[in-house]
Structures are given as C-alpha cells and as structure tokens.
C-alpha cells in the first residue's frame, strides 16, 4: 500500500462509496485503482485512524458492508439522467460547474449518511452528528469529496471596475456572498424530519402537532385548483411577466438527475414522489418529483449541525445584475458574446431576423433542440440566453429578445461616442447600464406595486449606501415560497393584439399550455409585437384566495415522457417540504406579525374565510400550514398584490439584494451623478419603443389602461442620454497611444491608481502568458501585453 498517499487512500474510500462514476469522473477523482483485499484493509485502517472517535470500520468484511449500504443509498445512480418531471423544468440546462459541485455534494452527503448509519448500528442508539464528527473531520470529508468552495482570487483593479460574471468578489471580506453555485441563505433553521436531510412527509405516519401533513395533491385539488374569473383593472399582464423574468435573474435551484424518479413511487433519495390522494385503476399512485440538488459547504464556520444538513444551491448569482441576459459563468458569457465581431455586442441569430430586420436570440449550441415545432413551417430551434429557462413561455422569450437588442443598441452608441474604447470596455459599460436599468425598473416600478408602498417604506426604505455587512444571497424561503406568489397570477390565456390593441386578425389567443417551449410562434406568427401588445393591453389576473392557480397549471401542466400531467401547486408544496422550510406560523413570527394561535386567528388573516376553513380541515392545526400556501391566501395589503407575510419576506430580500451589492447602480463610484440622473429617465416602456415596432405605449407599461387612454407616442417618452458616458481621450492615452490589441482576449483601461493602466484578460478557454497589467510610463507602455493561449498550447509551452 506504500504506493498510495494518505489522501489517495481517503479518496479511494469515497470512490468505493460511490462507484457509479463515469470514466471521466473516476479519472478526475483518481479512482482508477485495482482494489485488492489488502488495499481495502489499508483503506479501513487509515479511515479509522483519521476519525478516531468513530472507529466505524475494523475489517475488510465490515468495509464491504459499508459499500453495500452506500450502494443501497445510491443504487439508482447508474441510470441515465431522466427526463425532467414537468415542463417548467424542461430544458433547464444546468451548467457543468453546477453539475460538478452537485455531484461532489451528493458524495459528501452519502458519505456522511453511511457513517451515521454505521455509528448508530455500532452504538445501538442514535448518535447526533456533533457527537460523531469534529469540524476537522467534516472539513476533511468535504475536501476529499471535492465539496469545498474553490479558492477565489479577487483582482483589485478589475473587480473594482466591473462585477464578475459569477458574482464572486462583490464583497471583499466574503467573496462568495451572492455568488453562483453557493447555498441559498437560511433565515430560519431547516426543519428536516431526521434533522439532516429527510424532508417533511418523508416518513409515513410522522405527526405534526398530533396530525399528519396533508398530501400536496389533496391540498391542490381541494384548495388551489380553480378557474380564473377576475381581472385586475389597475395593472397589466406585463407586471406578471416581469416578475417571472426577474425571478430568473435571481434564483435557480436545479433538480437532481442522479436517479430515474419518473418510474418509481418509492421514497429513495433523490426521489420524493408526490403521493396521489386517490387511486385510479391503471394510474400511477404518485407524481414524479426530483429533489433539489444539495449545496457544498460555504462559510458555516464551526456550526457542524448546519454543515451536515442538506442545503440547496442557487446556481446563478443572487444579484440583480442582468445575469439573465449575460449568464453566470465565463463559458456562458463567451458563448453569448459576439467576440469575433470585436464590437462589444452580444451574439444574434445568424439565420433569423424579424420583418424589420431586428435581431432574434441565437440558437442553443446543441441542435436539433427539443422545442416544439410548427408542423406547417420550417424548424425554429430553442433560443439561447443568459438563463436556460428562456424558452419556457412566449413572454419570457420576448423580454429576453428586447434586452438582447437593447444591449446591442447601447453598445453601438457607446462605440460611436467613444471611438477609443476597446471592445471589452464597450461590452462592460453596456452591460453595466443594462444591469442598472434592470435594478431601476424592478425596485422603482415593480416591487412597490407587489408589496405596496407602505410595506416598501417599512421593509426597504431609502437607499443609504453599500453595506458590506449585508449578505445579498437569495434566501431559501424567498426562492421556494415568497416569490412564488406569482404562480397565482398567471393567466390561462395569452392574448395577441394588433396595432390598435384589438384581438389580432391572424393570430388568435393561445391557451397557456400551447405557449410552452414554442419559439416558432414568435418567428412565424408576427414577431414580438403581437405578444408584447397582448401583455401590455391585457389586465393582470386578479389576486384572490378563492381563485388561486389556473387549471392550466394544476391540470394541464405537461409532463414529458410520463403517464400523467403535473400540478404546479402540488410541486410548490412538495418543494417547500423538500427544502425543509419551517411552517407558516414560524415565518409570521420571524416577520414580527401577529401570531396564529387558533383557527379563528387564521380565518382573520386569510382573504377568504371559507378557503381558510378548507385549509384547516386539511392541516388540522395552524402551525402545520405550509408557508407558500399560508402566504398565498392572506388578505392583500393596500395597494399591493401580496399579504403581509410575503410583503415582509420579499421586502427584506430586496433590501438585502440592494444594500449588499457593491455594484448597485446608486452606490458611490459606480456611476457619476450625471449618469445616475440620465439612468432614472429609463423605463421598460422606452425599452419596448427602442427595440420593437410598437409606436404607442403607456408611460408605465405595468399600469393597465384601455387603448388609447393613457397611451403616448414613443417619441414623447424620455430616454437615457448616453452622452453622459462620453469620455475624452486623456493626456496619458495621447502620449502612450492605445494599448495593443491581442487575440483571444482584450483590455480595459483604468486610472484609479493615478496612472493609466491597461488590464488584460483572456476569453474563456484561454490562459494568459505574460503580464496582465501594463502601465503608461513616460510616452510608452512599460511592457508587452500578454499572450492568450489555449489550454493545450499552454501545456506544450
């Protein structure tokens, strides 16, 4: 065994525990060993020595038992990744970085579970994790399973100028706060049935306050399945669509694909099937459900209990940073940019343009794609954007298309104004402006309408500058419950309107289920304009406890390659239990709201007393009510579309997004005072005018009005005057000249240090060789720029 190092032996154990790795994964983990009995014995001896308090393994035979147990826990891992369980998950492509970390987290969790089970068998009693392992033990297991965060290097000058694509280094003291692929924040402790990873409802017969939790499908059927009967005459449908769009800029928690959960009704990690409340002859007894992937350790200090609990990952950045446009990894960003054009623009579709010659989003890289097709027309593939969920619905595609065009429009104007700017500077400055407009539209025009002006003042208030002590990470309750309030505002019909904002002569209204993953309807049926007019010129669905989710979502949500359709309400309830969210009453206490102690208390805060009665008949006790359901049926605050609980949770989260973001548009040094004043002139209505053929819009497109009342010509809308970004060529640049352009990379200029500095960086897939920073000294640059070489080239050099 001398040929193995101590770390090799520990890795061997992890490889044995999860032997269903692919060849590439096994190679990456150094699992290519020929195990002999002696090897196995040495592994167990080393492991026992490493964890002296545990002493779980004492022989080869016992180690084989552990292998068998681990295989039992992960026996479905060898299956190919299954189809997603519902159309809202369909095509949610998880980036390789996220997949790698989620696999590492699965290794970490499974290893801990095996150790825990063995400890309980050995001691014939329950041994809690803190008694079983020290923090050093936990860190070692995390390190060996590759489940520790990668080292983050923050480049002072470049990371002061522009936010990173991954969100890292926003906070100097805590560089992973808000970054992609980090855990969703816990505002209240997780409530797992075993304290660590088993969700509520995992163990049949488990009682809560003396009662079993009702089945999510039963709750949906008896409380939440309704037909839409009302409309809100104050707000337009665009308000609802913006909510989904901006949600995709803030949170994305992928579902596990390590097992086939479509063909089983067994509760075996990561499958947590939704049990049917009635059995129909020949039908499956459950609805498929994949648990969210676990997250790896990040900044848990010495809290072993929390470190050992299953946490869920936010795969994208938590910042309101327009990552929905630009992506959240260097690879995504490079794919979405027009790097060959060296113009600072985003890539556009090379095959399609609208009738006016405007751009469409580029196709996905892998063709043919899985999007639905026009049976009478040519193929239109799935579109690609900064978020993989872009094709979920037609309004989402429209909003993504508008912002692609807006970036390119801004980039072109910035290049005209500042001819000396490098393509990288043009791109980053345009990205910075687009990000600021996302923040302004969301915080100024959207959030006050959602939570109400009084709740906005109370929970968010005026901006007082960047606070490095504020963690901007998206919280679990926000992502899994509070911001899902919008599911109750989705209409069953998508209207398409003509230039007079009347029903379109050629393109009739569409049932919601016919809009999923159908980009062909935009390309072949009139472009973005009919749908844009439809969401502007249609009143939003009213919010009411007795009219919650449309049956388009509870009865007609498509399940791919499965024998039944899905139910979004049941999926939401099950997801909250999967994430171990505390109940409705606990969150009301968290927000300082009046406690719900009796059935009458619950009826008093609910929008509809009959609905409250139905809920209590199912849950039996107010403390058992799931937080998403409880928040959904509360009476709305004045001037809002949410009750006090969701207003609190959304408000607290939005304040954290704002105050904890070093690059928030109002933060000191991000924009000049003149630039800030110009940015405030921006609006979603103006974005629509500048990037479509629509000629008249409401001043605030989130407000509903019957055309033509309240509509104004586009040329009367204020716009962001980009002259505020004009930058004169400095004396240093005149003396030294523009830095040399390089292949496969670019530079940005900075004078923050008192000298003109060029900061070079290489595009994804290339590494720099040579100095990445050169300085203008005298009348020349003090060094040659770096070479950006591909990984293979670099290895040879």
Chain-wise SSE layout:
Blueprint: H1 6-17, H2 23-28, H3 37-50, H4 60-73, H5 96-123, H6 129-132, H7 135-144, H8 156-161, E1 182-183, H9 216-224, E2 225-226, E3 231-236, H10 237-250, E4 274-275, E5 286-287, H11 304-308, E6 313-314, H12 323-326, H13 330-336, H14 394-417, H15 423-451, H16 453-459, H17 476-480, E7 493-494, E8 510-511, H18 520-524, H19 529-536, E9 539-541, E10 549-550, H20 551-554, H21 568-578, H22 584-590, H23 599-605, H24 609-619, H25 627-632, H26 644-659, H27 673-679, H28 684-690, E11 696-698, E12 711-713, H29 731-736, E13 745-750, E14 757-762, E15 766-769, E16 773-777, E17 780-781, E18 787-790, H30 791-796
Parallel strand pairs: 2-10
Antiparallel strand pairs: 1-6, 3-9, 4-5, 7-8, 11-12, 13-14, 14-16, 15-18, 16-17
Helix pairs in contact: 1-3, 4-5, 9-21, 9-24, 10-14, 10-19, 14-15, 15-16, 15-26, 16-26, 23-24
